[in-house]
Amino acid sequence: MELRQLLYTLKIAEEKNFSRAADKLHIAQPSLSQQLSKLEQELGVKLFQRNTSTVELTYAGASFIRHAQKIMDAVAQLRQEMDDISQLRAGRVVVGSMPITGSHLLPYVLPAFKDAYPDIEITLLEDTSLNLEKLTAGGGTDLSLLSLPLQEPTLAYEPIGEEIIDLAVPPNHRLASSGEARSGVKLEQLQDEPFIVLKKGQGFRKLTVDLCRGAGFEPNVVFESNNIETVQSLVAAGMGITLVPRFIARAKRSELIPAYLPLAEPVPSRTLVIAYRKGRYLSKAAEAFIDTFKATMEQRDAAYNS
């Protein structure tokens, strides 16, 4: 069994088609078929069920793919560690990010990292929290920007900052003009309010619902969106209320801005983390990215509090 055979098999499983897999691998289709047949003969099992236009994994094939992914990931980690030992200056870090949080933080982090490490390439993948956790656990990213709690038990993490949660209400809402509310709105006061929230699969949606349940009520969700800016615009238009991370609440917008109010003690917050798979070797480039992210967050906090 050869590493290239593992790579070929993984690509066939990904593309579900020999022609597309061969194109992606830049080899001739007969050569690809020959290598797969050779591997199946060596193993004594069929890895794929051939159909007219597609191929599907057999039971043995699915098991083979799981192990092959782990082996190829281990090889990639070994190469990275050897690169670090040889003190190569160039490198590559695949970073996963929640679209909403990343759009407000990464424009500060990435330029700072590029200035400090111009020869290290950053590849950015954006997805929902749940998908990012799965990607990170499977080696699809080196690091991912997430918030606690994490659902995937195989992930470790580095805390990079604590973010306070604010309440967003329409500008003409009764709470917006209440002097008492300026000192902190109790979550229990919101149980009869219509909520506008993010769609399922996004970490902040779960946090919003959990905070409401912790205050003794189920939020009355009237609208959902994939975009926090849409959520805030709907709030500003008088369609309901929502909870917003403070970094996002402070972002500049030109129109349809809701009123932001603090929540009462104990003030809820979320912990932002850089997550990675437990036991996975972190390259020097990945460690440098974490350090840059932490430093940038500290600078942002200092600017907000000054």
TrEMBL record:
This is Bacterial regulatory helix-turn-helix, lysR family protein. It comes from Paenibacillus macerans. Belongs to the LysR transcriptional regulatory family. PROSITE patterns: HTH_LYSR. The keyword Transcription regulation applies. The keyword Ribosomal protein does not apply. Coiled coil: none annotated. GO terms for molecular function: DNA binding; DNA-binding transcription factor activity. It comes from the Bacteria. CDD domains: PBP2_LTTR_substrate (cd05466).
